[in-house]
Amino acid sequence: MTVMDDFPLMDDRPGSSGAQPIVRLRDIRKQYIMGKAGGRHEAIVVHALRGVSVDFYPGEYVAIMGASGSGKSTMLNLLGCLDRPTSGKYLLGDQDVANLSDDELSEIRSRYIGFIFQAYNLIQQYTVWENIQLPLTYQGSGTITAEDDARTSELAEMVGLAERLDHRPNQLSGGQQQRVAIARSLVNDPYIILADEATGNLDSATSAEIMAMLERLNQAGKTIIMVTHEDDIAEHARRVIRMRDGQIISDAPSERMKDAPPDVVGLGLGTGLPGAALAPV
Amino acid sequence: MGRIWRSVKLGIKSLLLHKLRSSLTILGVVFGVAAVIMMLAVGEGAARDAQEQIAQLGATNIIYRSVKPSQDAQSQKTGGRPSRVLNYGLKYEDYDRILATVPTITKALPIREIRREVRNGPHSLEARVVGTTHDYLEFNRLTIERGRFLLPSDNEHYENYCVLAAETARTLFPFENPLRQSVKIGSDYYTVVGVTKPRGSTAAIGGSLAAQEYDKDVYIPLNTCRVRFGERILSSRAGSQEAEETQLSQITLQVAKIEEVPLTAPVIEGAVKPFHEEKKDVDMVVPYDLLEQAKRQAAIFSLVLGSIAAISLIVGGIGIMNIMLATVTERTREIGIRRALGAKRRDITQQFLIETVVLSGIGGMIGVGIGVFVPPLITQFSEIKAVVTPESVILSFGVSVLVGIVAGLYPANRAAKMDPIEALRHE
């Protein structure tokens, strides 16, 4: 008896034949209590998510859209294991993470999740190099191996900042800072990369540059889930989920994928190996 | 280990972000630690001074001294009028009785002191003439520079021999070798058989024992002293003649081991006190007791001084806590980022604790540097003796680190308890 038994595969999705979803959400609900009950005030219960069920497959590139208050941020926090659902099940890989302790969630974040934030969120007093390595210090023993160093150099090279390893964030442009953040999100080789309005603070040229980088990552097999409210940014994804009032109102291939064969949209493609499926595209 | 070192390095980076703030915080600890070390050094210096002086009396010794009774005691005895001849002090029979009744005594030294002019031709000085035996040398830790000290045979044969202390010898014989020369003490001539090396004087202790200078002494055999000077001494004072009659000025007794002192002292007291109850003309000094007392006083002294200084260390700690609380609030977002990237609560606690301990540790080290460097200067440029002990250094540094941990604990916990999502949203 494994936790998997609670999760019958949703085989009705196009292209999902045989591939294991990397993330499975089942009837996820989340409610916050605003203010305190008592006296003349009644506690206000905010239903941020009202029963969300969705699967994400390895190698997918998903945009979650919605107006503010639609629950997309809550969704991202839950996906990123920053928060626990009030009820429902969340399977990351083959691990049920809905009811883990705070420490266990931290461990999951440090190993399987990569974050890219709107405000870059680099540590100001650290160099580029130290910022990229930050997630590694929170893994297991926290020691940095020669292998980690090699990987750090490689990532810095990839995001085009190999020359600026000893720079501080305040010596870099916004685009450069976001590239450091991307390198940082990749250093632990995560299952999924969560991007929260990753281009929200950037001009359009730099945005394009960042989006191109995410596109390349996805083509290399990385699973990316991004939250955005801009349609043209969402168009970079292959699948777009729209939310309203804490529920998913639509889940479809993005405009540019409309004409693509369903197995390319859905990804997974039966191999179960991120990236391998994308080679022919 | 590597991980901690890395955290320390990164912690220093965070502290360098606010150089002025960090250095001011460190300064609070520096003053605290330096103050503790210096205060304890002054306390220790005072304690050592006192203990050295007492130790010079010999911790295994028990000293009985003749004390001139006060006018009050004299009048009581004679019914209102002071007697013409003042008879007081230790007697030879006291000496014999002590030796007969107290078995733990290994050595006993009777001493008779008289002030007399000592003369060699034109050179003279007012010296303390000490009638004693051969043991005096050892009891008072004197060493011989030339010739020899008094021998038991000198005493037995009532020899007119004398030994001069360093300064006496220099005054009386500025250019010659004093050995085998004769000096006039009172009305008799004595042959110099030896000269002692200079020895520092002992300070007065608690009023019960006057300061002793050894360098202006002349030592003669006790028996010689007894027959030449007698027991009655006449002196003119304020126009009237006064006579004093004393047999011994002091009896110094020695036991084999320091542990026997507290047991022997009451026995000796029992042998002497009943015979001097009325006049109160003797006084017992037990250097061991004084030593214990001095140690207790020194401990209290150090405790008081140390506590005062510790307050400044605590103030320094409050400074650290204050700054760390501000820092935690200011770096809420950073905490959120770290949590999102996988930092556990204890990682956050550890990070802030390391930062505070680095702050207090650096402050502690600088404080130790100042605390160790300054006391020798105090000793050099003032009368105050200051001795830095390794214990005080370890103690104050340890306390500073401890203060850092205690001061850091609350802010670090507050940082760790933050909700990552709230923290990320902060600003």
From TrEMBL, chain B:
It comes from the Bacteria. The keyword Transmembrane applies. It is found in: Cell membrane. Belongs to the ABC-4 integral membrane protein family. The chain crosses the membrane at residues 20-42, 300-325, 352-373, 393-412. The keyword Protein biosynthesis does not apply. InterPro entries: ABC3_permease_C, MacB_PCD, Macrolide_Exporter_MacB. It is a multi-pass membrane protein. Keywords: Cell membrane, Membrane, Transmembrane, Transmembrane helix. One of its GO terms (cellular component) is plasma membrane. This is FtsX-like permease family protein. GO terms for molecular function: transmembrane transporter activity. Residues 307-420 form the ABC3 transporter permease C-terminal domain. Residues 22-256 form the MacB-like periplasmic core domain. Its main location: membrane.
